Amino acid sequence: MPKRAKKNEEAVEGETGNGAEPAKKEKKGKEPEAPILYEDPPDKTSSKDGRASNMKITSWNVDGLRAWVKKKGLDWVRKEDPDVLCLQETKCAEKALPSEITDMPEYPHKYWAGSEEKEGYSGVAMLCKTEPLSVTYGIGKEEHDKEGRVITAEFPSFFLVTAYVPNASRGLVRLDYRKTWDVDFRAYLSVLDQRKPLVLCGDLNVAHQEIDLKNPKGNRKNAGFTPEEREGFTKLLEAGFTDSFRELYPEQANAYTFWTYMMNARAKNVGWRLDYFLLSSALLPGLCDSKIRNTAMGSDHCPITLYLAV
After folding, report:
1. Which of 8, 61, 116, 152 meets the CB 3.0–4.6 Å disulfide criterion with 203?
2. What GO terms in the biological process aspect are recorded for it (predicted)?
């Protein structure tokens, strides 16, 4: 008899983490269900109070910058044409960055952060058309900052923070570390928010509610959907930040930003919503739209885009 696969042999994200539980095999003779896909609606470019969007920000976990460039990710960026492009999981030391991105004239102001200890691990980037007033790296705690996970840019009326939040990993071996990160990161954002309102974007490595992933039941003990990680996200919202997508589309199901490469998950739309734009309450009146660009290929995540009037 062939061995049965172990229950948790699911694919993992980048540094080992989120995998969607495989769908149950269909009984013989039964037609497989057609996947329910998400259609990104037309962009809204004005806020509820009637102001036109004047800031467009795109965030994308590229799952390896060099491979993503080869997969023509920059062609999509040029078409999307955001004012600021934030990237996560670049997995690339600054000295090894491909010239296709370092030489991009559209974004003269480019900022990179990478892991100090492990090359080809973690890493974030921010590319700006307009020079920020200041840029900082990390959150001021060495145990977190050595992994190259956060860049903060100050603009005249807000801070922009891009983050690649640590994954609790297969077997939840980093869950305790993740809980520490959540507390420290929330404190960092709260201090910033007292100075100036902020936008947080990136791969926050948690599906907050059951609506945010295809198979909640099978993933309660998996990285990205543990009660501890979900509670950490809830506390972030309670600290005064708003999930922009859910603010605009509270009941929208099947809207995901990550799909494991295994089991044809993307074509079946068996995914997770792990990528977010969170806003300080002071910026909410200027929220125009929060987009999930799920047709853009090149990574196991898709890009997301925020339209804001600031």
Report:
1. 61
2. base-excision repair
